[in-house]
Amino acid sequence: MSFVQNNMRFFGVMPRLAKLELTVRTPYASLFENCNAFSRLYVTTLKGQMAIGSRSIPRVYLLPPGEMVVKGMQAGAEGNNTASDSGAFMHTGGWLFVHENNSIEVNLLECCEKEKYNFDKLHTNTTETDSPAGKVAPICSSRPTDSSQRSADHLHVKYEQS
Fold this sequence. Notes:
Strand order of the largest sheet: 2-1-9-8-5
Number of strands: 10
CATH class of the largest domain: Mainly Beta
Largest sheet: 5 strands, mixed
Shape: globular
């Protein structure tokens, strides 16, 4: 008895989208939902500013607080739930996923249009070092916490003595 298998795939593969799609979410709202009316996305990652366009390499990026720019955005397009004209947004950090099916998913903690962001309310005098965590942080960063670091320092002292 022979078994014939036609057109069978053994791995789950998502079909590649013809145009790049963007989804941007916060815990409170979706700013973009499967929107393809834009050309590319500019974000600042830990390595620097990145431009993510169509057919980018699938990766995951950690986004520190800053600005995100959606270039070539069409206002009022399907999937665009924002009132932004410039495509510039301010956010408090999050994660960016570039999927292999030519889609981008951005999960942010907080986000708003840059036009609505109130820069006058930013304070230049921060008191982070006055908090309990701020007082302990310099002490912890000056001590080696890893046992391999302590043993390496110990070996370095022995080497200098001989």
